[in-house]
Design a protein that fits this description.
The structure holds two protein chains of two kinds. Chain A is an alpha+beta fold. Helices cover about 30% and strands about 20% of the residues of chain A. In chain A, strand 14 and strand 15 form a beta hairpin. Chain B contains 13 helices and two strands; from the N terminus they run H-H-E-H-H-H-E-H-H-H-H-H-H-H-H. In chain B, helix 1 packs across helix 13, helix 7 packs antiparallel against helix 8 and helix 11 packs antiparallel against helix 13. The chains are: A alpha+beta, B mainly alpha.
Chain lengths: ~575, ~325
């Protein structure tokens, strides 16, 4: 009898053990489909949109975007900065929230912001992109009376400074620099145009060594941020699990608005590269949210009875576009007429129908047609006109050799052949269809085009190195900033201007657009910019996506929007399963 | 009697099917196909087969289209051509290489083939020189040069030195079996995927990849046959009358292995067609845009409800594989 009681007690104990497990039950977790691995979660690098979404769960910026309202809102900052102009400088004064704390209970103070800015400008760290993007921040002035207040000193004037100055994750000084040694190096030393030598600053060299040794690419848990979640598991190429902090500082706030709202107890990003597998996972209930469902499957699901019963469907006009870029530094494509000719070989309406089931819209350029005041509607949309392409090629000096290809003489007396390759991310059906259509249309007028699908990790390095003729990629935009320097200014060649385009006129115009504060004049400059881009054609916008999202019916408050990633994962409220 | 009749009927069907695939593949560019192989019909994405032609486009997609708008019938016809272009030469080359290595390993074993010391020295120099070239280390290039000079000028005079005339056996059997075991230690598909990842997709590349990973199969068969043949009395007689090892192998031993090679060849071809299809399905090996049965099968992942993208290429693949195996089966039972 005693044995029986013991056995029964043990059985009950074992039965209760799972209840003590801190893992969330499936109803507490939101499972989202990701198409690939984020590669790195180093807050200084942020290599892609997926990494950006994940880093947004771990760390917080001073400001963020309320995607649904499409406005900038304070996040770690108490409010938007106070702007002052002093000669050629812009001064932006921020104050951090009183309640904002790190995980160890220490308050988040202005010294943390200064520390982050030093990280973003320090030599020896992987911060090239951040350093370029935030090069306008010259110095930070700390308020001696208020540890949470500081002023950013920015070079020049630009309306975008107001939000750009707060758009980077703030990192904890206490973790990486517990002895506060970096405070001895002023930020102005690091923000000089020429990088300082590490040998001059042994303290900095020591710090750089520590930072790199922390391996933040794959282990962001070594640098706990102020965000509501912590990464608890990362199975490379399979899944990332984020667990809600039980003692997040924003929980103490009386009212929690969306940027400071973190509802799901657990977020699982399931990496499923194959669309068919992801669809099966959605149907089986293995994932809850499937962003950017392939268009035909989206239509099929939302018209099927099973789909209607199990899922909710959302669409939103996005700021994400598919574009083709030409390598303007390569001989066949270094003249605008040849590039214009190739533009006429894209059958954009047919591509929208074939790849997006009509759930996309064309644009004359990089400005979204939704921005009616800025969009240059006097420019015609591109038409599919192979005959027009032939005329333009002839004007560019190309001559067709019988039924064969096109050639033209070069300045050195040699003959140049018009033979191209098109590079794009492998496995993407949209890019594959566009590439096939272009190759087909080009072949009909005698231009051979070789398809080069490339792994996503290789693609970026190829684009940076200029190892391509034509590329296809997506570009995410937003309605706030119109700074085209990273993608089209000659100063960004070898960094992010993959087309290697840049003329004195376009460079000047890009800078003028950034600086212009008057909305009417800005619109005028942007319209002019669209005309120049059409004439020069370093890139051609094929279409702008309409986001398509399918989610389990038990989920609410996804706050679907047209801004990346198209939904707000932290506000999703999973209802308990009935 | 009935079994024999049934076998010959099956063989006739198999030969007929293979002739059909071969002629369709060879004559593909001249066949009256409604769509060229690289064309995409964006108005008819993932269209079902056997639909009547539309008013806009009178041409008909008899076997439907894939998720990119490519005609499935055209893809199957050109896929047959790709299978012939890649798998047939690769099977032939792998058989020749395997036969050569297997026969030398089986015939000479580890001690039957002796090489004079002078050639060992020259080979070492050449090897070092080759390593130097590969590693971009100039001092080692000199050893290559020295080796080449030695081969062309001084090898014969050196042979007059009695000590250098001594010879050491080359353990061919151990080397061949070692290389085959090395290749077999990694699953073939994994090995090919790893090798394909470090080189650009091309027809030649895929041909070399298939050849250098498939030769152990025929090599093992031929080696086993030669181990049997070399112990036969007539080989001993040939040695007794003073024929060289090479002459005996080439003229008297190898013809006995011909039957084995001939029987194994269709199997090799069948395996390589399957392998090429698998690689194409996974999107490696072949240059992008080249039609193949594997690629048509892979297109079904875009639209899982498109059964025609699975059924038609799978039938073509299964038919060809079964026909090749039927040829082998008949040879074995004959």
């Amino acid at each position: 009898m005693r044995r029986l009681i013991w056995g029964l007690s043990l059985y009950i104990l074992i039965g209760f053990l799972p209840a003590c497990n801190p893992q969330a039950s499936p109803s507490d977790a939101v499972r989202v489909r990701w198409v690939r691995d984020p590669e790195s979660l180093n807050p200084l690098i942020i290599p892609n949109d997926l990494a950006n979404q994940a880093i947004g769960l771990l760390y917080q910026n001073l400001l963020t975007v309320d995607n649904q309202k499409q406005v900038w809102v304070p996040w770690l900052a108490e409010k938007l900065p106070i702007v002052q102009h002093q000669d050629s400088l812009t001064l932006l004064t921020y104050r951090l929230r009183n309640a904002a704390k790190w995980d160890n209970g220490q308050p988040i103070v202005a010294q943390d912001v200064a520390f982050t800015l030093k990280l973003m400008n320090s030599p020896g760290l992987p911060n090239e992109a951040a350093r370029t993007r935030f090069s306008f921040i010259q110095d930070v002035r700390l308020d001696s009376a208020d540890a949470r207040q500081f002023t950013l000193v920015c070079r020049g004037r630009a309306p975008e400074y107001v939000h750009d100055s707060g758009d980077y994750p703030i990192l904890p000084e206490y973790v990486l620099d517990p002895k506060r040694q970096l405070r001895t190096i002023p930020l102005t030393v690091l923000t000089q145009p020429a990088l300082v030598s590490l040998s001059q600053y042994p303290v900095l060299a020591d710090f750089v060594r520590r930072y790199n040794a922390a391996n933040l690419d794959k282990s962001p848990m070594n640098l706990p941020g102020s965000g509501p979640y912590q990464l608890t598991a990362w199975r490379s190429g399979q899944a990332l699990t984020f667990r809600r902090k039980t003692n997040w500082w924003a929980d103490q706030l009386p009212v929690q608005q969306p940027p400071l709202l973190a509802v799901p107890k657990q977020i699982d990003f399931q990496i499923i590269p194959d669309n068919a597998t992801a669809l099966l996972a959605l149907r089986r209930g293995d994932i809850d949210v499937y962003p950017m469902v392939p268009a035909n499957e989206f239509d099929r699901l939302r018209t099927s009875e099973n789909g209607k019963q199990a899922l909710r469907f959302y669409t939103a006009d996005s700021y994400e576009m598919v574009l083709a870029g030409f390598n303007t530094s390569r001989a066949p494509l270094n003249d605008r007429l040849t590039r214009q000719a190739l533009n006429h070989l894209f059958n954009i309406p047919a591509l929208i129908k074939a790849t997006q089931n009509g759930m996309a819209y064309p644009s004359v350029g990089l400005i979204n047609p939704q921005e009616k005041a800025l969009y240059n509607d006097s420019l015609p949309l591109l038409t599919f006109a192979p005959q027009q392409a032939e005329v333009l090629l002839s004007q560019a000096g190309w001559a067709r050799q019988g039924a064969g290809g096109w050639t033209r003489p070069t300045a050195g007396g040699q003959t140049q052949a018009l033979e191209l390759s098109i590079t794009y991310r492998a496995g993407d059906a949209t890019f594959e269809t566009i590439a096939l259509q272009l190759r087909n249309a080009a072949a009909q007028i005698g231009i051979p085009i070789q398809l080069r699908p490339t792994e996503s990790t290789l693609l970026l390095s190829k684009l940076r190195a200029g190892d391509f003729d034509v590329y296809l990629r997506t570009l995410s935009g937003n309605p706030f900033a119109y700074d085209f320097s990273p993608i089209l200014h000659s100063a960004s060649i070898d960094i992010s201007n993959f087309t290697r385009f840049g003329t004195p006129t376009s460079d000047k115009l890009i800078k003028a657009i950034v600086r212009e504060e008057n909305p009417a004049r800005k619109a005028q400059l942007l319209r002019k910019f669209q005309v120049i881009m059409r004439t020069e054609s370093p890139i051609v916008v094929l279409f702008v996506y309409r986001y398509r999202l399918a989610a389990d019916r038990r989920l609410t408050n996804l706050r679907v929007s047209g801004l990346r990633p198209g939904y707000d994962v932290t506000t999703i409220e999973p209802l308990p399963e009935s | 009697m009935r079994l024999h009749k049934k076998g010959s009927t099956l063989q006739m069907i198999a030969i007929g099917w293979l002739l059909l695939v071969a002629s369709v593949g060879l004559l593909a560019p001249w066949l009256p196909l409604p769509f060229p192989p690289d064309s995409v019909d964006l108005n008819n994405i993932a269209q079902s087969p056997f639909l009547p032609p539309s008013d806009v486009k009178p041409s008909r997609h008899w076997l439907g289209t894939d998720g990119y708008g490519r005609d499935v019938l055209t893809a199957l016809v050109y896929g047959a051509r790709t299978a012939l272009l890649v798998s047939l030469p690769a099977a032939f080359a792998a058989t020749v290489l395997g036969t050569f290595l297997g026969s030398t390993a089986g015939f000479w074993g580890n001690s039957g083939f002796h090489i004079p010391i002078v050639y060992w020295l020259i080979t070492s120099l050449l090897f070092l020189g080759a390593v130097g070239l590969a590693s971009d280390f100039p001092p080692l290039w000199w050893t290559l040069l020295l080796g080449l000079v030695a081969v062309t000028v001084i090898s014969k005079p050196l042979m007059r030195i009695p000590m250098l005339r001594l010879s050491w056996p080359l353990p061919i059997d151990r080397l061949v079996l070692g290389a085959a075991s090395l290749l077999a230690s990694v699953p073939r598909l994994v090995l090919i995927l790893a090798l394909a990842a470090v080189q650009d997709s091309s027809l030649i590349g895929l041909f070399l990849l298939l050849t250098f990973t498939y030769w152990p199969e025929p090599a093992h068969l031929v080696r086993a046959e030669l181990l049997r043949v070399r112990a036969l009395p007539y080989i001993e007689s040939a040695r007794a009358i003073g024929l060289s090892g090479g002459q005996i192998l080439w003229r008297h031993a190898l013809p006995n292995a011909w039957r084995t090679v001939r029987t194994a060849f269709p199997l090799s071809l069948s395996d390589l067609i399957g392998l090429e299809t698998t690689l194409s399905f996974l999107g490696v090996g072949l240059p992008s845009g080249m039609p193949s049965w594997g690629r048509t099968l892979a297109a079904a992942r875009l639209d899982p409800t498109a059964w025609w993208l699975i059924i038609f290429p799978a039938l073509a693949l299964a038919g060809t594989t079964l026909a090749l195996r039927q040829l082998t089966a008949n040879r074995i039972t004959a």
